[in-house]
Amino acid sequence: MSKLLQGIIVPMITPLTLDGALDIEGLERLVEHILRGEVNALFLAGTTGEGPALSHEIRKKMIARVCNQVKQRVPVVMAAMDSSPAETMNMIIHASDVGAAAVAIAPPFYMSVSQSDLVRYGRAIADASPLPVYLYNVPNANLPRFTLDTLEQLCELENVLGFKDSGGSRDFLIAAIQLFEKRPETSVLVGPEPLLVEALRAGGDGGVSGGANLFPQLYTELYKASTLDDWETVEALHQLVLRVERDFYRVGEGESSLIRGIKAAASHLGICSATMAPPYVSATPEEIAEVALRLERFQEVLLETFSRTGTLVKI
């Protein structure tokens, strides 16, 4: 049975204008830049997309425009994350209406919730959703997360098609992969890129990789090599993935450094501005200049590695 999500899924940044509106032209350039790298799906309004910091209006406009532009070339997944289950369902219904393929839901935030609450929440959303549902553990350890026991109960639901884990624990990730193996149509996807290769070796289905906003072909070639059991190429490319994290995920304040770095690099590439959603602050001119230097050096190493591994450069 085929899986809806498998391979490299890109958690898209959200291009914004200087006054905080959705940057339509930047969004269109970003989508085409990513798709030229032959990625397997797009993931909107998640952590890398600053989703919870965006108004519902911007989120709805973005999913509608992306679905219209993509025209089913790849699945488009909407992160429907809110403190209100009713608003979560409103976003899911809108995503369904405009052509999204699936949604991802995280535990509601702000209110204290038990794992029993999360089982009830997951069941209610999965039963009501017109789209397939993927469960999502966000990177922030201070927010509620699905435990393995809760995942075991929810993974039995027909409309739950998998799990995206950004928690960062290797042991938890591998246990989650084993939980979902009993349903071959489901997918387990990893967020943190240092764990990408371990996830693939353990039977995971792919990665939701922020660096693919910038270098999509790097990630898709790594995934393709893993399907061919070409682990030598996988390891060579994974070293570059780790360099992406070192060079572009640590710009400015730590809490928002990953998004800031990706947006700074995207601005230098001419894709979109470096503007971030409040309360985050955008990269300074000095930070963008430093990122530009790192970008130039990285692109040289990327091309050399592609040449050495026999990868045909498409972008």
Automatic annotation (TrEMBL):
Keywords: Lyase. It comes from Candidatus Sulfuritelmatomonas gaucii. GO terms for biological process: N-acetylneuraminate catabolic process. Pyruvate binds at residues 48, 208. GO terms for molecular function: N-acetylneuraminate lyase activity. One of its GO terms (cellular component) is cytosol. It comes from the Bacteria. The active site is at 136 (proton donor/acceptor), 164 (schiff-base intermediate with substrate). Belongs to the DapA family. It holds the Pfam family DHDPS. This is Dihydrodipicolinate synthase/N-acetylneuraminate lyase.
